[in-house]
């Protein structure tokens, strides 16, 4: 199986974590986002959306990170994606929650909007108003995550690690690029620390911290 990805990619990192933990062998094909390779014809022929990751398993191709994560977990028989219908439905629900809620406002609204030109507004008033609105909404999502999804639970879906944890923690730690702190949310802080303590975390996220977080270490950002 071939994985087209980039080490800094928020949607690629959960897949790399699962593969590292489960020993899933993937042929790595880096798509250099910094050079714009994802927008060039060779890669657009593979993924017309111009996004990473993309998985090729023979003549079968997937182009959405969440779908790839589920496919690999199921194919490998990972305990992180149990087959029991209600357990699986809960995992899917949590992953959708991150994708459609928190990631939209914390990721796109606060991190990308302060670091990537494509998501910034030239008008300072519009930029500031948009950031303020995203900040308010991101805080609400963090309250839900802390007080409900992680309340009295080691992991997102209970006592056991699932692919929802791989998925969610990568989306949340994207906030570190813009120096976002989660100290006001103790359950989130505990959960993030638990995930970072896993032996595969450092190696998988080495590029993320070096090139993305490190690239903005001197930046000035709106905080939470």
Largest beta sheet, briefly?
Answer: 4 strands, mixed
CATH architecture of the largest domain: Up-down Bundle
The ordered H/E elements are EHEHEEHHHHHHH
Q: What is the CATH C level class of the largest domain, in words?
A: Mainly Alpha
Question: How would you classify the helix and strand content by structural class?
Answer: alpha+beta
* Alpha plus pi helix count: 9
Radius of gyration, whole Å: 17 Å
For this entry, what is the oligomeric state of its chains? single chain
Give start-end ranges of low-pLDDT stretches. Answer: none
Proportion in helices: 40-55%
- Strand order in the largest sheet: 2-1-3-4
Instruction: Output mean pLDDT.
Output: 97
Q: Cα distance, first to last residue?
A: 40 Å
Domain module tally: 2
Q: How many beta-strand segments?
A: 4
Characteristics:
about 220 residues, alpha+beta, Glutaredoxin, Glutathione S-transferase Yfyf (Class Pi), Chain A, domain 2, 2 domains, four-stranded mixed sheet, 9 helices, 4 strands, about 50% helix, globular
């Amino acid at each position: 199986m071939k994985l087209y990805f980039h080490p800094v990619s928020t949607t690629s990192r959960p897949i790399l974590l699962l593969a590292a933990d489960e020993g899933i062998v993937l042929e790595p094909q880096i798509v250099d986002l910094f050079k714009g390779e994802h927008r060039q014809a060779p890669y657009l022929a593979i993924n017309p959306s111009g996004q990473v990751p993309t998985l090729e398993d023979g003549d079968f191709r997937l182009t959405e990170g969440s779908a790839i994560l589920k496919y690999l977990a199921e194919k490998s028989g990972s305990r992180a994606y149990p087959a029991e219908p209600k357990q699986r439905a809960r995992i899917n629900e949590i992953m959708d929650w991150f994708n459609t809620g928190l990631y939209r406002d914390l990721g796109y609204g606060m991190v990308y909007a302060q670091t990537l030109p494509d998501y910034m507004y030239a008008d300072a008033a519009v930029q500031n108003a948009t950031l303020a609105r995203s900040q308010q909404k991101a805080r609400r999502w963090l309250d839900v995550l802390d007080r409900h999804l992680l309340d009295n639970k080691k992991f997102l879906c209970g006592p056991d690690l699932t692919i929802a944890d791989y998925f969610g923690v990568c989306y949340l730690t994207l906030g570190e690029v813009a120096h976002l702190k989660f100290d006001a949310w103790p359950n989130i802080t505990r959960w993030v620390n638990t995930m970072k303590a896993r032996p595969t975390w450092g190696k998988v996220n080495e590029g993320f911290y070096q090139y993305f977080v490190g690239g903005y270490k001197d930046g000035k950002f709106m905080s939470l």
